[in-house]
Specification:
Blueprint lengths: L11 E4 L11 E8 L3 E6 L4 E5 L3 E3 L6 E4 L8 E8 L2 E5 L6 E6 L3 E3 L20 E4 L9 E9 L5 E7 L4 E6 L3 E3 L19 H4 L4 H8 L8 E4 L8 E9 L13 E7 L2 E2 L2 E2 L2 E5 L3 E3 L6 H4 L37 H7 L17 H5 L23 E5 L14 E7 L5 E6 L9 E2 L4 E3 L13 E3 L10 E10 L7 E11 L2 E11 L4 E3 L4 H19 L5 E2 L1
Parallel strand pairs: 29-33
Antiparallel strand pairs: 1-2, 1-5, 2-3, 3-4, 6-7, 6-10, 7-8, 8-9, 11-12, 11-15, 12-13, 13-14, 16-17, 16-22, 17-18, 18-21, 19-20, 23-24, 23-27, 24-25, 25-26, 28-29, 28-32, 29-30, 30-31
InterPro entries: KOW, Ribosomal_uL24_CS, Translation_prot_SH3-like_sf
GO molecular function: structural constituent of ribosome
Protein name: KOW domain-containing protein
Length: 543
C-alpha cells in the first residue's frame, strides 16, 4: 500500500480489473470496512466483496471539492478541475487553473470554507449534461459529462468533459460535442422565448466565429493576410472555400484548396474586391499560421482539410539556433516582408521606378511621355502588344511583326515603355513613345479569345484584364460598329478567375496582353459555357 493512500469507511470507489487495464472498471461500490491491505466493499450489484487496496480507485471527478490527506500537499483543499486515471488536478483559487496534482487515493471529500473565495462549477449552464464527442479522432462517439463551461476570451467557449469509460477529463471546444440522445449542439439547448440562443451572451460568443465552426465550410469569415502572389501583404476575409483536383504528375505537395477572399482595398469602382487565392497563399491574420492549424476544421468540415501531402510554403525562416537555445529566434526582417504589400494596383503601392541616371543614358532626344495612351499608372508592369515604327525594334517591316512593351515609371515622373521579349535577352531596353503605335491587328469583338487589358474609356476601368463573351452593334450593323461585351478576370499566378464585373467597350479601348498558351487554353475551357449561353442570343443593334 503506497504511503500516500488513505481509505475511510463510506468512500466511493471503483474496482479496477487487471484484465481490463489500469482504467478498466468491474463495478463501483462503497467501502464498508477498512483493513490493513484490503477493504470490504458493498458493490452496486448488491454483493459484498473483499478487495485488495491496489485494485481500488476513489471516484472523485471534476466538480468535487476535496481535501488532501497525505503527502507534500497534506491539508490542502481544492476543487477537482481535471482527472487523468489516478491523478487529480486541483484548482485552489478563482483563476480556475489547476495548480497542484495529487493521487486520487490521497484525498477525501470536503466542504468548502466560506470564509474565503472558493472556485465553483455551478455557474455552467450545461453542468452534468451527458454528451457525445463528435470531433476528436481517438475519442469520437465517446460519451462524457460536462463538468464546467467558460468563455475562452477569444470569442468562443470551452468545456471540461469527464469521460467515465476512460476515467479522465479534458478540455474541448463547445462545438465538438452534441447532446447524447438528441444529437443537438450545445448552443441549441438554451433558447429564449423567441428561439434565440442564450449562450451567445452568456459566453460572449463571436457569432461570426460560431458560424465558421458550425457551418458546412471551414474558415468562412476568417481574417487572413496574403503572403504571396499579386496581393502579397493585403488583409481580407474568407468568403468561400472549394477543393480542386490535384494533378499527381505535377506538385503533389499543393494544398488542393482554393479560397475566395474579400480584400480590404478598393480596386477601381469596386470596394473590397473578391479574388480566388490558393490556400497556401494566405495565413491567419493574428497567428500567421496556416488556416487549418489556427482554426481546425470540425468533423463536419473535414472534407476541406488540405491534401495529406501538402507542404506549406514557409512565410519566414527561423535563424539557426545556438547550442542550448530552446526558443526560436525569429528573423524580424523576414517577418516584416510577410506584411509588405507588393500588388501594383494597391493605392499605397510605391513603384520603384527607373533611376534618373538610367533615363539620362537614353540620350537628350529620347521622348519619355506622360500623355501616350499606354502611359497610365494602372498599366504599370503589364506587357501589352504594340507596333513600333522605326528604330532597331521596328515591327512594321514584316507582316507578322509584333512587340510587347511594359509601361514603367521613372524617378523623374515620366513613364517609359520597356521592351518585353522574354525569348530575346535584351536587358533593360526602352523605346521612344513617339514610335509606339496601336497594333495593326485589332481585337475582334465577334470572335476574340485572347486576354486583353482596358486602356481607354473610364479611368476606373483602365488596367483591368478582360475577355470577350459576346458583342453588339452600336449604330448600324457593320464591322466598324462592333463593340465588345467583356467579363473582367483576375489572376493568382496562372489561376484565372471570372469576377462579377462586365464591361462594354470598343476595340480601341482594349489591347492584347502577353499570355501563355496554357493560360489561353484554360480560359477557353473556363468561359466555354458562358460564351455558349450568351451566343444563343443574336447580337443587339443599339442606337
Amino acid at each position: 500500500m503506497p504511503e500516500l493512500w488513505h481509505f475511510d469507511v463510506g468512500d466511493s470507489v471503483s474496482i479496477a480489473g487487471e484484465q481490463l487495464g489500469l482504467h478498466g472498471e468491474i463495478t463501483r461500490g462503497i467501502i464498508r470496512e477498512v483493513y490493513l491491505r484490503t477493504c470490504e466493499v458493498d458493490t452496486a450489484l448488491g454483493e459484498t466483496v473483499v478487495v485488495q487496496n491496489d485494485r481500488l480507485v476513489k471516484t472523485f471527478i471534476p466538480g468535487d471539492y476535496v481535501k488532501v490527506l497525505k503527502g507534500p500537499h497534506a491539508n490542502t483543499q481544492g476543487l477537482v478541475g481535471e482527472r487523468d486515471g489516478r491523478v487529480l488536478g486541483l484548482i485552489r483559487d478563482l483563476s480556475h487553473s489547476v495548480s497542484i496534482w495529487v493521487d486520487v487515493n490521497s484525498v477525501t471529500a470536503a466542504i468548502a470554507d466560506s470564509s474565503f473565495p472558493t472556485p465553483t462549477m455551478n455557474e455552467s449552464p450545461w453542468k452534468d449534461l451527458k454528451v457525445r464527442i463528435v470531433d476528436l479522432n481517438f475519442y469520437a462517439q465517446t460519451e462524457g459529462i460536462v463538468k464546467r463551461a467558460w468563455p475562452d476570451g477569444h470569442g468562443s467557449a470551452r468545456i471540461l468533459l469527464y469521460v467515465p469509460s476512460n476515467d479522465c477529463s479534458f478540455e474541448l471546444d463547445y462545438t465538438q460535442v452534441v447532446e447524447h440522445q438528441t444529437n443537438r449542439p450545445l448552443d441549441q439547448l438554451a433558447l429564449d422565448s423567441e428561439g434565440r440562443s442564450l449562450f451567445f451572451d452568456h459566453f460572449k460568443i463571436n457569432r461570426s466565429l460560431h458560424r465558421m465552426k458550425t457551418g458546412p465550410e471551414p474558415w468562412i469569415g476568417a481574417r487572413i493576410r496574403v503572403v504571396q502572389g499579386n496581393e502579397h501583404g493585403l488583409t481580407g476575409t474568407v468568403r468561400d472555400v472549394n477543393r480542386y483536383q490535384l494533378d499527381p504528375r505535377k506538385n503533389i505537395h499543393a494544398s488542393g484548396i482554393v479560397l475566395t477572399v474579400e480584400l480590404d482595398v478598393a480596386r477601381g469602382n469596386i470596394v473590397s474586391p473578391q479574388v480566388k487565392l490558393d490556400y497556401d497563399s494566405v495565413r491567419e491574420l493574428h497567428t500567421t499560421d496556416v488556416l487549418h492549424s489556427a482554426i481546425p476544421p470540425s468533423w463536419r468540415q473535414s472534407f476541406f482539410m488540405p491534401n495529406p501531402h501538402y507542404m506549406p510554403t514557409k512565410a519566414f525562416e527561423a535563424q539557426t539556433l545556438p547550442a542550448r537555445s530552446y526558443t526560436p529566434v525569429i528573423d524580424r526582417d523576414s517577418v516584416a516582408k510577410l506584411y509588405e504589400f507588393v500588388g501594383v494596383w494597391h493605392p499605397g503601392f510605391e513603384h520603384g521606378g527607373i533611376p534618373s541616371y538610367e533615363v539620362e543614358k537614353l540620350g537628350p532626344n529620347f521622348v519619355a511621355s506622360t500623355t501616350h495612351f499606354l502611359c497610365n499608372r494602372n498599366l504599370f508592369g503589364i506587357p501589352i502588344r504594340v507596333d513600333i515604327m522605326g528604330g532597331p525594334y521596328d515591327t512594321l517591316k514584316t507582316k507578322a511583326g509584333e512587340r510587347y512593351v511594359v509601361p514603367t515609371p521613372a524617378e523623374n515622373g515620366a513613364i517609359l515603355l520597356q521592351i518585353d521579349q522574354p525569348q530575346i535577352k535584351v536587358g533593360n531596353v526602352f523605346v521612344d513613345t513617339t514610335l509606339v503605335l496601336r497594333h495593326r491587328n485589332r481585337p475582334k469583338p465577334s470572335t476574340e479569345k485572347h486576354l486583353m487589358v482596358v486602356v481607354g474609356g473610364l479611368e476606373e476601368h483602365i488596367g483591368k484584364f478582360v475577355r470577350r463573351v459576346h458583342h453588339f452593334y452600336k449604330g448600324s450593323k457593320t464591322n466598324a460598329n462592333k463593340w465588345f461585351k467583356l467579363v473582367v478576370v483576375e489572376f493568382t499566378g496562372e489561376v484565372e478567375v471570372v469576377t462579377g464585373l462586365e464591361l462594354e467597350l470598343s476595340p480601341d479601348d482594349v489591347e492584347y496582353v502577353r499570355e501563355s498558351e496554357q493560360v489561353r487554353r484554360n480560359s477557353t475551357q473556363l468561359l466555354a459555357e458562358l460564351r455558349q449561353f450568351r451566343g444563343h442570343a443574336a447580337p443587339e443593334i443599339r442606337p
